[in-house]
Amino acid sequence: MRQIFPKAEEEESSIDLTPMLDVVFIMLIFFIVTATFVKESGIEVNRPEASTATKQERANILVAIDRNGEIWINRRRVEVDALRPNIERLHAENPQGTVVIQADQEAQTKQLVAVMDAAREAGVYEISIAAESQ
């Protein structure tokens, strides 16, 4: 006798992971694009205290002066002569940004004034000095 119905083959059931991988990939891109990156000057300084200190929101050029008078930008030691080109380059990347000088409380005023002059020569007139709030 001939069989009318073919023999039932077992089908393997599997879940297609492609849509889930697409969603994970899109979420990864979203988090990378929206992440804020913390900029650091490169060294830790003991900032002086000030009762009127306020937080700067748009600071993107951080310049640190340590107690020995060394100047640091983006974890690199910078000579006074190279300050202006470095600040100009960073300011070109973000024209709305400001310069924040993180001077150690033991640093000399001479270095602080040199950094401020270099920033102004580079075309940045919004300059702040970092301090600890009380």
From TrEMBL:
It is found in: Cell membrane. Pfam families: ExbD. It comes from the Bacteria. Its main location: membrane. It is a single-pass membrane protein; Single-pass type II membrane protein. The keyword Electron transport does not apply. GO terms for molecular function: transmembrane transporter activity. GO terms for biological process: protein transport. Keywords: Cell membrane, Membrane, Protein transport, Transmembrane, Transmembrane helix, Transport. GO terms for cellular component: plasma membrane. Signal peptide: none annotated. Gene3D superfamilies: 3.30.420.270. The chain crosses the membrane at residues 20-38. InterPro entries: ExbD. PANTHER family: BIOPOLYMER TRANSPORT PROTEIN EXBD2, EXBD MEMBRANE COMPONENT OF PMF-DRIVEN MACROMOLECULE IMPORT SYSTEM. Belongs to the ExbD/TolR family. This is Outer membrane transport energization protein ExbD. It comes from Sinimarinibacterium flocculans.
